[in-house]
Amino acid sequence: QVQLVESGGGLVQSGGSLRLSCTASGFIISASAMSWHRQAPGKERTLVGQISSWSTGTTYADSVKGRFTISRDNAKNTLYLQMNSLKPDDAAVYYCHRVGTTYWGKGTLVTVSS
To answer: What is the distance in angstroms between the CA of the first residue and the CA of the last residue of the chain?
Structure first.
């Protein structure tokens, strides 16, 4: 059974950092393209960034480029989103997603205080 479980969200001050984790089960994360998305209250879910299968490349939304980094630990079957220089506009529920499938995590809430 495929499952994605996010963790690591919380309250952080503007300019601070957080690292989100997405632990996968039921499939090998390194063999899959994975992505992070976010959804702020009253707004649509948007793509934050994506890592290709076998970690051959990453892409990011312009709004987070240079501040966020996607990586994975194959031994732990876990995807990460390192978020630095956080801004109030980054506040949202963050979701991980197995690209090309209907598998999503339930999300983790990030709150950024100004």
So the answer is: 40
